[in-house]
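Dear colleague,

Following up on yesterday's call, I've attached the two folding results inline so they're easy to grep. Please treat them as preliminary; we haven't cross-checked anything against experimental data yet. The first protein's sequence and structure tokens come first.
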Amino acid sequence: MTPEQIGLWAGLILSLMIFSYVLGDNFLYRLAIAVFVGLAAGYVTIVTVESVLMPWLNATLLTRESSVGERLLGIAPFILGLLLLVKASPGVGRLGNLALAFLIGVGAAVALVGALTGTLLPLAVSTGRMANLDLINGFLLVLGVISTLLYFHYLGRRLPGGEVRRALAIRFFGAIGEGFIVVALGALYAGAIITGLTIFSERLAFILSRVGGG
């Protein structure tokens, strides 16, 4: 048996072990997940070292022509990583909050800019164009976008009894937005299942054809 056939059989067995979860949680499924997680962790580690850490070190700390500022910039990620490691210590764990605050701040800024420039603004432009072309589809798009955003609006008025209640209009459109979210998630879930079954059947046919042909 050639190495290619061994790889094909291993892929087939692991795929069947993953799909055995349909019958319930079992040892074969957990074993396949453990193999997948281990391989993924090793692959991510190798890619991180070769594609991120080594180029960063070569460009900042290991270059003779680098200035003092570049060397300080090069050592900054390692200092933040060390602070995150000491966060597990009860005595000096508070120092890790500095690195955590930096990561959360940068992550929030990147996520906000990405959401505005990559999602909200293009969606608003596309909605406006669709509204000009088709009245019904444009109305549904505008209603879905507005009601979905209002669904995540949590401001309300505190009643004398201590209960916090949102305005009637916010609750009404929020319920409509919840319906749009349910439909969208259902469609995505159905699409994921169909895609997974299609890929599995295609790979199964490919493996069986290669094994049978060999």
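Below is the second protein, in the same order (sequence, then structure):
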Amino acid sequence: MNKTLELVLRWLVGLMMLVFGANKFLNFMPAPEMPEGDLATFFQGFMASKYLMPLVGLVEVVVGILFLTKKWMPFALVLLAPISVNIVLIHLFLDPANIAMALLVFVANIALIYAYWGNLKYLFK
């Protein structure tokens, strides 16, 4: 992979994870209007658990910092994989109109996994 593309993807995803993860604790961005329906029910359950949103926020902040500092990238990519898959699946099944950013994170994660495959392939032996 081109080093410039890798840098852009790392910074783009790193900033997104850091900002959206920190927002789960600091609430500096207004929550989007939640329409009635399955998505609202899903998020109500997620929030009612009391631990899931802080856990996701913490993992997102950690991944964001690791991406931005380029430290432990293979570990950060493994941490981000289930988050990016779930973001896509939530949007695919509950909010397909707003799937674009979810796909961006997912595709960037896949591209960066490919770029760091030499460090990750041992997990699959």
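For the second protein, one point worth flagging: The chain has a mean pLDDT of 93.

Best wishes,
A.L.
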